[in-house]
Design brief:
The structure is a single chain. The chain is mainly alpha-helical. Helices cover 68% and strands 1% of the residues. The relative contact order is 0.16. The protein folds into two domains: 8-269, no CATH class; 275-356, no CATH class. A two-stranded antiparallel sheet has the order 1-2. It is built from 16 helices and two strands.
Protein backbone atom coordinates (compact mmCIF):
# COMPACT_ATOMS: atom_id res chain seq x y z
CA UNK A 1 0.00 0.00 0.00
CA UNK A 2 1.27 3.49 -0.90
CA UNK A 3 2.25 5.59 2.11
CA UNK A 4 -0.21 8.40 2.90
CA UNK A 5 -0.17 11.68 4.76
CA UNK A 6 -1.00 11.28 8.43
CA UNK A 7 -3.61 14.04 8.44
CA UNK A 8 -5.15 16.76 6.32
CA UNK A 9 -3.37 19.49 8.27
CA UNK A 10 -0.07 17.71 7.64
CA UNK A 11 -0.81 17.68 3.91
CA UNK A 12 -1.77 21.37 3.93
CA UNK A 13 1.36 22.37 5.87
CA UNK A 14 3.60 20.33 3.56
CA UNK A 15 1.98 21.87 0.47
CA UNK A 16 2.23 25.33 2.00
CA UNK A 17 5.89 24.69 2.75
CA UNK A 18 6.50 23.83 -0.89
CA UNK A 19 4.69 26.98 -2.07
CA UNK A 20 6.20 29.58 0.28
CA UNK A 21 9.63 30.68 -0.87
CA UNK A 22 11.45 33.47 -2.68
CA UNK A 23 8.24 34.44 -4.44
CA UNK A 24 6.73 35.38 -1.08
CA UNK A 25 9.67 36.55 1.00
CA UNK A 26 11.58 38.48 -1.66
CA UNK A 27 9.75 38.94 -4.94
CA UNK A 28 6.29 39.99 -3.78
CA UNK A 29 7.49 43.19 -2.06
CA UNK A 30 9.38 44.70 -4.96
CA UNK A 31 6.82 43.61 -7.59
CA UNK A 32 4.09 45.27 -5.50
CA UNK A 33 6.05 48.50 -5.17
CA UNK A 34 6.92 48.43 -8.86
CA UNK A 35 3.35 47.96 -10.10
CA UNK A 36 1.11 50.38 -8.30
CA UNK A 37 1.10 49.23 -4.68
CA UNK A 38 -2.39 48.44 -3.45
CA UNK A 39 -3.86 48.22 -6.94
CA UNK A 40 -1.38 45.45 -7.77
CA UNK A 41 -2.42 43.54 -4.64
CA UNK A 42 -6.07 43.69 -5.72
CA UNK A 43 -5.26 42.34 -9.18
CA UNK A 44 -2.96 39.73 -7.65
CA UNK A 45 -5.69 38.49 -5.28
CA UNK A 46 -8.08 38.29 -8.23
CA UNK A 47 -5.51 36.27 -10.22
CA UNK A 48 -5.01 33.87 -7.32
CA UNK A 49 -8.76 33.36 -6.81
CA UNK A 50 -9.75 32.97 -10.48
CA UNK A 51 -6.71 31.31 -12.06
CA UNK A 52 -4.08 29.99 -9.66
CA UNK A 53 -6.52 28.36 -7.21
CA UNK A 54 -8.53 26.50 -9.90
CA UNK A 55 -5.31 25.25 -11.47
CA UNK A 56 -4.07 24.13 -8.07
CA UNK A 57 -7.34 22.27 -7.52
CA UNK A 58 -7.05 20.63 -10.95
CA UNK A 59 -3.48 19.52 -10.24
CA UNK A 60 -4.56 18.10 -6.88
CA UNK A 61 -7.39 16.13 -8.48
CA UNK A 62 -5.16 14.73 -11.23
CA UNK A 63 -2.59 13.55 -8.70
CA UNK A 64 -5.19 12.03 -6.36
CA UNK A 65 -7.03 10.27 -9.20
CA UNK A 66 -4.02 8.71 -10.93
CA UNK A 67 -1.67 8.25 -7.94
CA UNK A 68 1.42 8.10 -10.09
CA UNK A 69 4.53 10.16 -10.75
CA UNK A 70 4.05 13.46 -12.54
CA UNK A 71 4.82 12.05 -15.98
CA UNK A 72 2.46 9.12 -15.50
CA UNK A 73 -0.24 11.39 -14.09
CA UNK A 74 -0.73 12.99 -17.49
CA UNK A 75 -0.40 9.77 -19.47
CA UNK A 76 -2.70 7.43 -17.55
CA UNK A 77 -6.11 9.17 -17.97
CA UNK A 78 -6.12 9.09 -21.79
CA UNK A 79 -3.39 6.56 -22.45
CA UNK A 80 -1.93 8.94 -25.07
CA UNK A 81 1.84 9.09 -24.85
CA UNK A 82 1.91 12.60 -26.26
CA UNK A 83 0.81 13.89 -22.85
CA UNK A 84 4.10 12.65 -21.39
CA UNK A 85 5.64 15.88 -22.67
CA UNK A 86 3.44 17.92 -20.31
CA UNK A 87 4.60 15.95 -17.29
CA UNK A 88 8.15 16.09 -18.57
CA UNK A 89 8.04 19.87 -18.81
CA UNK A 90 6.78 20.08 -15.23
CA UNK A 91 9.61 17.82 -14.09
CA UNK A 92 12.13 19.93 -16.01
CA UNK A 93 10.72 23.12 -14.46
CA UNK A 94 11.14 21.69 -10.97
CA UNK A 95 14.74 20.75 -11.76
CA UNK A 96 15.53 24.26 -13.01
CA UNK A 97 13.99 25.85 -9.90
CA UNK A 98 15.92 23.45 -7.66
CA UNK A 99 19.17 24.35 -9.42
CA UNK A 100 19.10 27.89 -8.01
CA UNK A 101 16.99 27.34 -4.89
CA UNK A 102 19.54 24.93 -3.52
CA UNK A 103 22.28 27.54 -3.91
CA UNK A 104 20.30 30.19 -2.01
CA UNK A 105 19.31 27.58 0.58
CA UNK A 106 22.99 26.78 1.08
CA UNK A 107 23.62 30.47 1.77
CA UNK A 108 20.74 30.53 4.26
CA UNK A 109 22.07 27.44 6.03
CA UNK A 110 25.51 29.04 6.29
CA UNK A 111 24.05 32.25 7.77
CA UNK A 112 21.90 30.23 10.18
CA UNK A 113 24.94 28.34 11.48
CA UNK A 114 26.99 31.54 11.70
CA UNK A 115 24.26 33.27 13.69
CA UNK A 116 23.77 30.28 15.98
CA UNK A 117 27.52 30.07 16.62
CA UNK A 118 27.80 33.86 16.96
CA UNK A 119 30.16 34.04 14.00
CA UNK A 120 28.02 36.61 12.16
CA UNK A 121 29.40 40.16 12.10
CA UNK A 122 26.81 42.75 11.01
CA UNK A 123 29.49 45.44 10.66
CA UNK A 124 31.29 43.48 7.92
CA UNK A 125 28.30 41.68 6.40
CA UNK A 126 28.91 42.89 2.82
CA UNK A 127 32.61 42.03 2.86
CA UNK A 128 31.96 38.65 4.48
CA UNK A 129 29.37 37.76 1.84
CA UNK A 130 31.69 38.81 -1.00
CA UNK A 131 34.45 36.65 0.45
CA UNK A 132 32.03 33.75 0.90
CA UNK A 133 30.71 33.68 -2.68
CA UNK A 134 34.23 34.29 -4.06
CA UNK A 135 35.43 31.08 -2.45
CA UNK A 136 35.55 28.21 -4.95
CA UNK A 137 34.63 25.56 -2.38
CA UNK A 138 32.69 27.02 0.55
CA UNK A 139 29.37 27.79 -1.25
CA UNK A 140 29.42 24.33 -2.84
CA UNK A 141 30.04 22.72 0.54
CA UNK A 142 27.04 24.48 2.10
CA UNK A 143 24.93 23.59 -0.94
CA UNK A 144 25.85 19.93 -0.54
CA UNK A 145 25.11 20.14 3.19
CA UNK A 146 21.62 21.43 2.46
CA UNK A 147 21.08 18.69 -0.14
CA UNK A 148 22.16 16.11 2.44
CA UNK A 149 19.60 17.41 4.96
CA UNK A 150 16.90 17.41 2.28
CA UNK A 151 17.80 13.87 1.23
CA UNK A 152 17.48 12.65 4.82
CA UNK A 153 14.03 14.23 5.15
CA UNK A 154 12.75 12.75 1.88
CA UNK A 155 14.31 9.34 2.62
CA UNK A 156 12.40 9.21 5.91
CA UNK A 157 9.18 9.02 3.92
CA UNK A 158 6.02 11.04 3.50
CA UNK A 159 4.73 10.81 7.06
CA UNK A 160 7.92 10.60 9.12
CA UNK A 161 9.94 12.83 6.86
CA UNK A 162 8.17 15.54 4.86
CA UNK A 163 5.06 15.79 7.04
CA UNK A 164 6.95 15.77 10.34
CA UNK A 165 9.40 18.43 9.13
CA UNK A 166 6.56 20.57 7.77
CA UNK A 167 4.61 20.38 11.04
CA UNK A 168 7.54 22.02 12.82
CA UNK A 169 9.22 24.23 10.22
CA UNK A 170 6.21 25.88 8.54
CA UNK A 171 4.68 27.19 11.81
CA UNK A 172 8.17 28.24 12.94
CA UNK A 173 8.64 30.20 9.72
CA UNK A 174 5.25 31.84 10.27
CA UNK A 175 6.21 32.90 13.80
CA UNK A 176 9.52 34.35 12.57
CA UNK A 177 7.87 36.27 9.74
CA UNK A 178 5.18 37.71 12.02
CA UNK A 179 7.77 38.68 14.65
CA UNK A 180 9.95 40.46 12.08
CA UNK A 181 6.91 42.22 10.63
CA UNK A 182 5.87 43.38 14.12
CA UNK A 183 9.38 44.72 14.65
CA UNK A 184 9.17 46.58 11.34
CA UNK A 185 5.82 48.08 12.29
CA UNK A 186 7.29 49.31 15.58
CA UNK A 187 9.95 51.37 13.78
CA UNK A 188 9.41 55.14 13.65
CA UNK A 189 7.73 56.23 10.45
CA UNK A 190 6.44 52.79 9.52
CA UNK A 191 3.26 54.41 8.20
CA UNK A 192 5.24 56.18 5.47
CA UNK A 193 6.77 52.88 4.43
CA UNK A 194 3.33 51.28 4.29
CA UNK A 195 1.99 54.18 2.22
CA UNK A 196 4.84 53.73 -0.22
CA UNK A 197 4.15 50.01 -0.52
CA UNK A 198 0.35 49.78 -0.36
CA UNK A 199 -1.00 53.17 -1.52
CA UNK A 200 -2.86 52.34 -4.77
CA UNK A 201 -1.85 54.00 -8.01
CA UNK A 202 -5.13 53.60 -9.90
CA UNK A 203 -3.63 54.88 -13.14
CA UNK A 204 -1.71 51.60 -13.40
CA UNK A 205 -4.96 49.78 -14.20
CA UNK A 206 -4.51 50.97 -17.77
CA UNK A 207 -1.05 49.38 -18.00
CA UNK A 208 -1.06 45.81 -19.37
CA UNK A 209 2.21 45.12 -17.58
CA UNK A 210 0.35 45.26 -14.27
CA UNK A 211 -1.78 42.25 -15.19
CA UNK A 212 1.19 40.32 -16.57
CA UNK A 213 3.11 40.96 -13.36
CA UNK A 214 0.15 39.92 -11.19
CA UNK A 215 -0.39 36.70 -13.14
CA UNK A 216 3.30 35.86 -13.08
CA UNK A 217 3.50 36.48 -9.34
CA UNK A 218 0.38 34.38 -8.69
CA UNK A 219 1.72 31.37 -10.59
CA UNK A 220 5.25 31.73 -9.23
CA UNK A 221 4.12 32.16 -5.63
CA UNK A 222 1.43 29.47 -5.41
CA UNK A 223 3.61 26.95 -7.23
CA UNK A 224 1.27 25.54 -9.87
CA UNK A 225 2.72 23.85 -12.93
CA UNK A 226 5.76 22.23 -11.30
CA UNK A 227 4.22 18.86 -10.53
CA UNK A 228 4.72 19.19 -6.78
CA UNK A 229 1.01 19.58 -6.08
CA UNK A 230 0.03 16.52 -8.11
CA UNK A 231 2.80 14.48 -6.50
CA UNK A 232 1.75 15.46 -2.97
CA UNK A 233 -1.91 14.76 -3.80
CA UNK A 234 -1.02 11.23 -4.93
CA UNK A 235 -0.17 10.41 -1.31
CA UNK A 236 -3.36 11.89 0.17
CA UNK A 237 -6.20 9.93 1.76
CA UNK A 238 -9.04 9.01 -0.64
CA UNK A 239 -11.58 11.33 1.00
CA UNK A 240 -9.48 14.46 1.07
CA UNK A 241 -11.49 17.69 0.81
CA UNK A 242 -9.64 19.21 -2.11
CA UNK A 243 -11.57 22.49 -2.30
CA UNK A 244 -10.89 23.29 1.33
CA UNK A 245 -7.24 22.25 1.06
CA UNK A 246 -6.81 24.48 -1.98
CA UNK A 247 -8.37 27.42 -0.15
CA UNK A 248 -6.16 26.98 2.91
CA UNK A 249 -2.97 26.72 0.86
CA UNK A 250 -3.81 29.83 -1.20
CA UNK A 251 -4.80 31.83 1.89
CA UNK A 252 -1.67 30.78 3.75
CA UNK A 253 0.62 31.48 0.80
CA UNK A 254 -0.87 34.94 0.21
CA UNK A 255 -0.71 35.75 3.93
CA UNK A 256 2.99 34.91 3.99
CA UNK A 257 3.58 37.25 1.03
CA UNK A 258 1.66 40.16 2.56
CA UNK A 259 3.24 39.84 6.00
CA UNK A 260 6.74 39.38 4.55
CA UNK A 261 6.34 42.64 2.62
CA UNK A 262 5.88 44.37 5.99
CA UNK A 263 9.42 43.25 6.82
CA UNK A 264 11.14 44.37 3.64
CA UNK A 265 9.96 47.94 3.23
CA UNK A 266 9.86 49.24 6.83
CA UNK A 267 13.13 47.57 7.78
CA UNK A 268 15.05 48.65 4.69
CA UNK A 269 13.32 51.94 3.97
CA UNK A 270 13.56 53.18 7.55
CA UNK A 271 16.97 51.65 8.21
CA UNK A 272 18.61 54.55 6.39
CA UNK A 273 17.95 53.80 2.72
CA UNK A 274 15.80 56.21 0.77
CA UNK A 275 12.75 55.25 -1.24
CA UNK A 276 14.67 55.46 -4.50
CA UNK A 277 17.49 53.29 -3.17
CA UNK A 278 15.04 50.76 -1.77
CA UNK A 279 13.23 50.19 -5.06
CA UNK A 280 16.48 49.50 -6.87
CA UNK A 281 17.83 47.45 -3.95
CA UNK A 282 14.78 45.20 -4.03
CA UNK A 283 15.51 44.64 -7.71
CA UNK A 284 19.08 43.87 -6.81
CA UNK A 285 19.09 40.15 -7.61
CA UNK A 286 18.10 41.01 -11.16
CA UNK A 287 20.05 44.11 -12.01
CA UNK A 288 21.35 46.42 -9.30
CA UNK A 289 23.62 44.10 -7.31
CA UNK A 290 26.55 44.50 -9.69
CA UNK A 291 26.11 48.25 -9.67
CA UNK A 292 26.11 48.33 -5.88
CA UNK A 293 29.49 46.62 -5.86
CA UNK A 294 30.84 49.38 -8.11
CA UNK A 295 30.15 52.08 -5.51
CA UNK A 296 32.91 52.91 -3.10
CA UNK A 297 32.06 52.75 0.58
CA UNK A 298 33.14 56.39 0.71
CA UNK A 299 29.77 57.20 -0.78
CA UNK A 300 27.96 55.75 2.23
CA UNK A 301 26.83 58.55 4.54
CA UNK A 302 27.70 57.85 8.14
CA UNK A 303 28.94 54.67 9.75
CA UNK A 304 27.17 51.57 10.93
CA UNK A 305 23.89 49.98 9.83
CA UNK A 306 22.05 53.30 9.52
CA UNK A 307 24.25 54.70 6.75
CA UNK A 308 22.26 55.92 3.76
CA UNK A 309 23.21 55.05 0.20
CA UNK A 310 23.24 58.13 -2.01
CA UNK A 311 20.63 58.38 -4.73
CA UNK A 312 20.99 57.29 -8.30
CA UNK A 313 18.82 57.39 -11.37
CA UNK A 314 16.29 54.59 -11.64
CA UNK A 315 15.78 52.38 -14.63
CA UNK A 316 12.74 53.02 -16.83
CA UNK A 317 11.07 49.97 -15.30
CA UNK A 318 10.91 51.67 -11.91
CA UNK A 319 10.47 55.30 -12.95
CA UNK A 320 6.73 55.33 -12.25
CA UNK A 321 7.31 53.92 -8.78
CA UNK A 322 9.90 56.57 -8.10
CA UNK A 323 7.45 59.29 -9.05
CA UNK A 324 5.26 58.08 -6.20
CA UNK A 325 8.23 58.12 -3.83
CA UNK A 326 9.69 61.51 -4.68
CA UNK A 327 7.19 63.46 -2.62
CA UNK A 328 8.74 61.77 0.42
CA UNK A 329 12.21 62.75 -0.81
CA UNK A 330 11.34 66.42 -1.25
CA UNK A 331 10.19 66.64 2.35
CA UNK A 332 13.26 65.01 3.83
CA UNK A 333 17.03 65.12 3.84
CA UNK A 334 19.58 62.37 3.90
CA UNK A 335 21.06 60.98 7.11
CA UNK A 336 23.92 63.47 6.87
CA UNK A 337 21.51 66.40 6.94
CA UNK A 338 21.82 67.26 3.25
CA UNK A 339 19.22 67.10 0.47
CA UNK A 340 19.63 64.18 -1.94
CA UNK A 341 21.15 65.75 -5.09
CA UNK A 342 22.89 62.76 -6.68
CA UNK A 343 21.25 61.69 -9.94
CA UNK A 344 23.45 58.93 -11.32
CA UNK A 345 25.94 56.26 -10.45
CA UNK A 346 28.80 58.36 -11.81
CA UNK A 347 27.77 61.27 -9.62
CA UNK A 348 27.51 58.92 -6.66
CA UNK A 349 31.09 57.75 -7.12
CA UNK A 350 32.34 61.34 -7.10
CA UNK A 351 30.21 62.42 -4.17
CA UNK A 352 32.25 63.26 -1.08
CA UNK A 353 31.62 61.33 2.13
CA UNK A 354 29.63 63.00 4.89
CA UNK A 355 32.65 63.99 6.91
CA UNK A 356 34.11 65.90 3.97
CA UNK A 357 30.99 67.98 3.25
Amino acid sequence: MTEQWGSRIGFVLATLGSAVGLGNIWRFAFVTGENGGGVFILVYLLAVATLAAPLMLAEFVVGARVRADIVGAFTAPSGARRWRAVGGLMLLGSFVVLSYYVVVAGWALKYFVDAAMRFARPQTAYADFDAFIASPAEPVAWQLAFLAVTTLVVAAGVRRGIELASRWLVPLLGVLVVALAAHGMAMPGARQALDFLFAPDWSRLADPKLYIAALGQAFFSVGVGFGVLATYASYAAPRQRWTQSTAWVCIGDTSFALVASLIAFPAVLLGGLTEIAVVEALEGFRRATNALHDISFDTICGAGPNGAIVHYRASPATERVLDRARHHERASTDSCGYPPPVASWSDAKNEAPCAAR
